[in-house]
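Please discuss these two lines.
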Amino acid sequence: MFENIRPVSISKRASEEILHIMKTKGIAADYGLRVGVKGGGCGGAAPMLGFDRKKDTDLVYIIDDIPVYVDKRHAMYLMGKQVDFVDKADARGFTFTDEGTKDD
């Protein structure tokens, strides 16, 4: 169902930072970026990022030379989300935004 549709996108800033981390932190070649959700219930599902190996239940996407792994069960919760990277005086890190609504 989702095999031909990417549930998430990655901004140029986030892509550059992810590639930098993979290179400088010695992330193994068989690892990719895991994008998923945790939690649920009243607070809803919160998006999460990390580096991980591919699992049997994953959908796999290559975005800007980054292998991206999304568990099939999480794909519907991530639809339309974009991974972005913020580097401001008061905040630095990865964020999730609704595609097309991020501040530049």
Summary: Residues 45 and 87 are 25 Å apart (CA to CA). The beta strands are 8-10, 31-39, 45-53, 58-63, 66-71, 81-88, 91-98. The mean pLDDT is 87.
